[in-house]
């Protein structure tokens, strides 16, 4: 597929020229003083906040951690982290679903530079098509956040920030190769000059892949592979990606920025109805910020996400779809007093569907207003938020949340929270020909949370407990022959995160325990499928002069692949060895041996995982 820009619609032009990104580099405290970017998050409260004192469970993965991990994809980077289970159908570029705190794969809000992404038809974010080479930082916020972000934030919010450059201009280049005929390269430039900043990065990656579906005697529906004859071929993946961004501080009060990310992929897989797809993920957006005073600022943000795919069987075109998601937010942050902040905002979201399938409806909009209060009272902190959504399809819906935290003694904090959330029905559930039910309402949830954190010299830990009840889940209703709001589910669990330095080693570890239950229908009492009951990730790193050595261990418990709990996938553990050597101050050689012991495992029944792999990367990045 040739790399080509999408046509610029009116909405796209507006997004690029006049709307805002919630770029982390532009976040500032209300005191007007700059904050250390390594210590703040913006996703949990839609305002800058120190991660160490966040009332919500937050995890941040910055660019240094991304490069140190040597992850080759976003799913690879997120695998095994606290609260996250992933299911992959056969390697790079293949369908990947993410379950955050046991919530359904379409019950997590995903943002790229403040722009909501995801398919309006399936409700899923295309994790497999997001280029890790273009990412500067990822913020993971676990728990209900519909009172700030609206529909789908039952499990939480994952916010991806593309690269940002804040110092002098400098280039960067990387090139690498490894197992399964894999190779990639990339080049970029970015930095700041005076009041203006800009950057651009291009990246390419390709793998010949492996046989994604492992079915010896297939049937048309065996294991979800949808094949009637074995296809023991290589299922490869190719991806081009381009990221551009820029901005200017017009004066001390006004800032303007714009950003665009485009990823194009060619994916091969096994299937009777299609076995190849050309995919597009595109996000464009921008921002205008106005700092009226130290106690008042306004921010206008917005953009468009395009999620598109053309499907082929051999050389024949068999279908295509494209969904556009336009969004905009106007937010005012008002400093009431020292330590007391009120945020007021209005959201607008529009989904549009186009493709070879003719839907009964192909367009809907959502309007919302929200308010949030944050207050510090000595050792106590309090937050409260409320939101009202008005949707063209299901009407009005109100969500809210409260959180409280207290510093018990120096270094120890306790947090508690409660929140409601909801998920909007997808276009497939509402309007798919002869299947959709336009009378569907949103799925609803209630979550209670309790956490305790400890911060010491060179070490920290956080333990979070949660219990989520979900009502009106959408499932097929035999009585009407259509999907309906008829099911209920419960997810509860615990998450422990630890970071420490000891004897020259840096440790980052997390452990998750999850208990899910289907609470209605024929499958009442069963576990929800494709969620591992136990998960753990540990990273150990140490530098010996110019040489750095690291290990990444990931373990996941057993899971079921079906709602009836008849197909059990056993647990597994993998260990990665990572090496890094600084040839010069600017030139670094990296090597990774993934799945060192060649463990054979599946995260979706009948779909292979790659086994042992090696990859070598050379990076050149002069200091600014």
Automatic annotation (TrEMBL):
<feature type="signal peptide">
    <location>
        <begin position="1"/>
        <end position="25"/>
    </location>
</feature>
<comment type="similarity">
    <text>Belongs to the TonB-dependent receptor family.</text>
</comment>
<feature type="domain" description="TonB-dependent receptor-like beta-barrel">
    <location>
        <begin position="267"/>
        <end position="596"/>
    </location>
</feature>
<keyword id="KW-0472">Membrane</keyword>
<dbReference type="GO" id="GO:0009279">
    <property type="term" value="C:cell outer membrane"/>
</dbReference>
<dbReference type="Pfam" id="PF07715">
    <property type="entry name" value="Plug"/>
</dbReference>
<keyword id="KW-0998">Cell outer membrane</keyword>
<keyword id="KW-0732">Signal</keyword>
<dbReference type="InterPro" id="IPR039426">
    <property type="entry name" value="TonB-dep_rcpt-like"/>
</dbReference>
<keyword id="KW-0812">Transmembrane</keyword>
<dbReference type="GO" id="GO:0006811">
    <property type="term" value="P:monoatomic ion transport"/>
</dbReference>
<dbReference type="InterPro" id="IPR000531">
    <property type="entry name" value="Beta-barrel_TonB"/>
</dbReference>
<dbReference type="InterPro" id="IPR037066">
    <property type="entry name" value="Plug_dom_sf"/>
</dbReference>
<feature type="domain" description="TonB-dependent receptor plug">
    <location>
        <begin position="53"/>
        <end position="157"/>
    </location>
</feature>
<keyword id="KW-0406">Ion transport</keyword>
<keyword id="KW-0798">TonB box</keyword>
<dbReference type="Pfam" id="PF00593">
    <property type="entry name" value="TonB_dep_Rec_b-barrel"/>
</dbReference>
<keyword id="KW-1134">Transmembrane beta strand</keyword>
<dbReference type="GO" id="GO:0015420">
    <property type="term" value="F:ABC-type vitamin B12 transporter activity"/>
</dbReference>
<keyword id="KW-0813">Transport</keyword>
<dbReference type="InterPro" id="IPR036942">
    <property type="entry name" value="Beta-barrel_TonB_sf"/>
</dbReference>
<dbReference type="InterPro" id="IPR012910">
    <property type="entry name" value="Plug_dom"/>
</dbReference>
<dbReference type="InterPro" id="IPR010101">
    <property type="entry name" value="B12_transptr_BtuB"/>
</dbReference>
<dbReference type="GO" id="GO:0046930">
    <property type="term" value="C:pore complex"/>
</dbReference>
<protein>
    <submittedName>
        <fullName>Vitamin B12 transporter</fullName>
    </submittedName>
</protein>
<keyword id="KW-0626">Porin</keyword>
<dbReference type="GO" id="GO:0015288">
    <property type="term" value="F:porin activity"/>
</dbReference>
